[in-house]
Amino acid sequence: MPHHASHDVIVIGAGAAGLSAAAALHAAGRDALVLEARDRIGGRLLSTSASASQPGLDLGATWFWDGEKRVRALAARGSITTFDQHLAGDTVVQDTTGTRRLPGNVLDAPARRFHGGAQRLAVTLAGALPVGGLRLDTPVTAIRPHQRGGLHVHTQDATLHAEHVVLAVPPALALERIDFAGALPAELIRLARATPVWMGAAVKIVATYESAFWRRLGLAGAAMSRTGPLQEIHDMAGPDGHPAALFGFAHARTLRPGFEGAVPTLLAQLFGPGAATPRAVYVQDWSTEHWTAPSTVQRLADYSLFGHSLYRQPALEGRLHWASTETADEYAGHIEGALAAGERAAQAVLARPFIPARS
Fold first, then answer.
1. Domains along the chain?
2. Is residue 53 very low, low, confident or very high in pLDDT (cuts 50, 70, 90)?
3. Strands 151-155, 219-225: pairing kind
4. pLDDT band at residue 52, thresholds of 50, 70 and 90?
5. Rama region for 98: left / alpha / beta (φ>0; ψ in -120 to 50; rest)
6. Does 116 score more than 70 pLDDT?
7. DSSP-assigned beta bridge partners for residue 174
8. For the chain, first and last CA: distance in Å?
9. What are 158-215's pLDDT values in tens digits?
10. Whole-Å CA distances, 152 to 64, 170, 195, 358
């Protein structure tokens, strides 16, 4: 027989949005349980494992910008030091006619990064949850309104009850992975299925080196290529050049099998022979992440749907709340947007009359 348990709130997804919502709800005295399908926290906050010789490198979200106060405050709370993105130097551009150097950095804007990687933000948020407040490896399969009020949340091994549910995963993913049994309004279903997944169709590649040699050459580590496989490249080295790394983005649909072998060749064309032999190359294809990208991710391109007003209207009689960076009405697609969406969902729950959870 499946196990039944009741909670005030169930949060689906342990990325920045879900953990932010859960931490706020817990601080307000609510019993909030986070269910995460993966075996890790962070969602699209993903950093390589840190060691004494190699700090964590971001394979997901990397930057935050001036005015993003929630991120800055969270980093301070977790004693996570931040530093300026390296900007000094020239840009390299490559097209079918060849490679040329442009004066100054025409690609990057002032931004800040996190010592040890952005995933440390998720660790800080998770640290605010009580023991037992987070379950990994627990995909949600269905959500059903309960005849006595609240919602039933089904996993492979249990049926849980909650007065409120916070959906802290991309809307299109939620509609594909979770069975709502036709309980959602048709307009909301159409919106959620059409909303793009931020980074969902992106491939991020990080190449590490012994030193940030491009800086000595007067290059910013910023480059654009129209021949691929990477379309844009940025400096990912630390403020003192350690760890030394470059990273680039590609769209998953443009890549051919074995493209990883062409990455050092491209980097050498852009930054010189020193780039031809990286110490390591990390490839993170977000389009193949089962718990990030729905099967339709390559076709979703209408970013004007981010922050749509319907996402600020709780569904299922006010009990189902949207909270992912795609639903944020400010800084959508950023870490700040995820934190804002989680905060908004928590506030919406707290604004409702409190009814203790029951089975």
1. 3-43+121-197+302-351 (3.50.50.60), 85-115+201-288 (3.90.660.10)
2. low
3. unpaired
4. very low
5. left
6. yes
7. none
8. 15
9. 999 999 999 999 999 999 999 999 999 999 999 999 999 999 999 999 999 999 999 9
10. 37, 20, 25, 11
For 23, 62, 64, 281, the CA distances from 169, given in Å and listed in that order, are: 16, 19, 20, 28
Amino acid of residue 137: D
Whether residue 85 contacts residue 63, with contact meaning beta carbons closer than 8 Å, is answered with yes
Q: Phi-psi region for residue 21, left (φ > 0), alpha (ψ -120 to 50) or beta?
A: alpha
Joined together, the tokens standing for residue 19 give: 């953990």
Q: What's the rounded Cα separation, in Å, for the pair 333 and 201?
A: 13
Is the confidence at residue 4, as pLDDT, over 60?
A: no
Residue with tokens 């494992």: 49
Q: Which amino acid is at 303?
A: Y
The CA–CA distances, whole Å, from 250 to 35, 172, 228, 260, 273 equal 31, 22, 8, 11, 22
Q: What share of the chain is helix, strand, coil (3-state, %, to 5)?
A: 30, 25, 45
**Do residues 284 and 60 make contact, with C-beta atoms less than 8 angstroms apart?**
yes
DSSP SS3 for 143: strand
Threshold 0.90, pTM exceeds: yes
pLDDT score at 2: 44
Q: Are 195 and 157 in contact (CB under 8 A)?
A: no
Alpha-carbon separation of residue 325 from 100, 167, 344 (angstroms) = 37, 11, 11
CA gap 290, 30 in Å, rounded: 30
Mean pLDDT of the chain, nearest integer = 94
Q: Which residue type is seen at 350?
A: L
Tokens of 356: 């203790």
**Measuring CA to CA, which residue among 204, 58, 31 is closest to residue 122?**
58
Is the model more confident about 148 or about 342? 342
